[in-house]
Design goal:
Two copies of one chain form a homodimer.
Chain A (H helix, E strand, L loop, with lengths): L23 H15 L11 H8 L3 H13 L3 E4 L3 E4 L5 H7 L2 E3 L8 E11 L2 H7 L6 E11 L2 E11 L8 H5 L5 H9 L5 E10 L2 H7 L6 E10 L5 E9 L4 E7 L1
Antiparallel strand pairs in A: 1-2, 3-10, 4-5, 5-6, 6-9, 7-8, 8-9
The first copy, chain A, binds a DNA duplex (19 and 19 nucleotides) through helix 3.
DNA sequence: AAGTGGTCTAGACCACGTT
DNA sequence: ACGTGGTCTAGACCACTTT
């Protein structure tokens, strides 16, 4: 809860103006995102009330409201009537299922069991460097993990993280943690995953996947390549997943 | 452009009230959706201005604005500054790519060529009846079509539509039409697709798919089962697609 | 100039949760 | 009783499009 929020250089678009001005609520939205990025308020914490923010920024409460509304619709913030507005956290089932799209063909989604198979430091390949906006050869943490549902191995994820952001991340640390990986990243490294882009393809299981998942070679699998972004749209995770989809499917909504 | 919009029985939540009241803007939103469902304004047409609607409903312009804002964020309406607010239509590339998620691994998305392989009347199976909320045995239109990108056969879709809504739909009609299928449904049958739920799995190509798509049998394919909904959240299409994903992938955003 | 949506304000009151 | 977000209003002015 720092007091470091900027005070006043906000300017509304002027009629005869020259350059591109943005609306007040957009400027406030940007300031709030910067504050979140700086970690002024941690995931799960309340941000200042709307009237408080209106005072700080010297705008009306309705203008703050519009900025917060948009951030809430983007799931960076969560409004709770009567209580306040809170920073989103992955330590909640509701948020988690936004990023774990695998659901059972029958029955309700169950929590997955995670098992870390490997965690090491590598040098960024061209592909990894491009995805994470690093330079080839930069330090990268490479994690391989197995997800099981109801004891059935179902997903192998290969995860690549910028070494600079995840200093001291080890297999031991990962294994000592229960709960969602993104929650772990949040509390242990201050990295909040806010948004992701995925590309899905069908592939055949190679011998490696066959062994890890206990399935015949050439079983059709869903391959999911994900790039995750944190507040300022900076990519901070490349994840390549192999999903077995006989008992589970990837659910999606088109709006 | 009917004048059939209800006039006044709107009531705001009263303090000592008994049952569950909904906010004014929600009631107006519901009325607007009903109007869209009735076809008061067709896709592509402008709806009345905010001030006009405020007059009709006897509420302030700001309240109408909030209702329209939400419908715009759900992509039922599109705002155009200075011009008006318009009913969404599938006769626009922007809308189309919301429902066609296949993108080339390299280069920009190209329009697909559609070829109708079959179009017939069948009786609803249990599966189809469940998906479309029909009774087993009800009349259903079954369409099979092939999508090609740059001449390469890539997608086979099996599409099932409620017969009652699509009277007179024939292969000839379909073949005489250029453009997106959902645009065709819109203009020819007044059925607007607004939202869809998809389930994705990896499967192997069977002999049928192998022949249709010119690929080896057992090629891994992406199977996409979709249920599409129109305004009042009524399911009006079941679509089962088989995608070849060597040169293309299914793109998705997690927010 | 006129009409549309877009932004901003100030104030009132309601609903919810906590003290 | 108080503080929070949620709704609603009325009015002013800006920005974009068309006449």
């Amino acid at each position: 809860m720092s007091e470091a929020l900027a005070r006043k250089p906000l300017s509304v678009a002027s009629a005869t103006g020259a350059a591109a001005f943005s609306p007040l609520y957009q400027q406030i939205k940007d300031l709030l995102v910067q504050a979140l990025d700086r970690g002024d308020w941690k995931p799960g914490e309340a941000i200042p009330s709307e009237t408080e923010l209106a005072l700080r920024f010297q705008v009306s409460q309705g203008t703050v409201r519009k900025a917060v509304d948009e951030l809430a619709s983007e799931n960076l913030l969560i409004r709770r009537q009567g209580k306040g507005t809170f920073v989103s956290t992955h330590h909640e089932a509701r948020v988690r299922f936004r990023f774990l799209r695998l659901a059972p063909n029958q029955g309700e989604p169950q929590p997955a069991e995670s098992q870390i198979l490997d965690c090491k430091r590598i040098r960024a390949s061209a592909e990894i460097a491009r995805a994470l906006e690093l330079k080839v050869g930069d330090s990268v943490v490479a994690i391989r993990r197995l997800l099981s549902f109801a004891g059935v191995p179902t997903v192998v994820d290969d995860i690549y993280l910028p070494g600079a952001l995840f200093k001291g991340l080890t297999a031991d640390l990962l294994n000592g943690y229960v709960g969602p990986l993104y929650g772990f990243f949040e509390t242990e490294f201050g990295v909040s995953m806010v948004r992701a882009e995925e590309k899905l393809r069908a592939v055949n299981a190679d011998s490696e996947m066959s062994v890890l998942l206990g399935i015949p070679q050439d079983t059709p699998m869903l391959k999911v390549d994900r790039i995750s972004f944190t507040y300022a749209d900076r990519p901070v995770e490349l994840r390549m997943g192999h999903y077995v989809t006989d008992r589970y499917h990837y659910r999606n909504s088109l709006n």
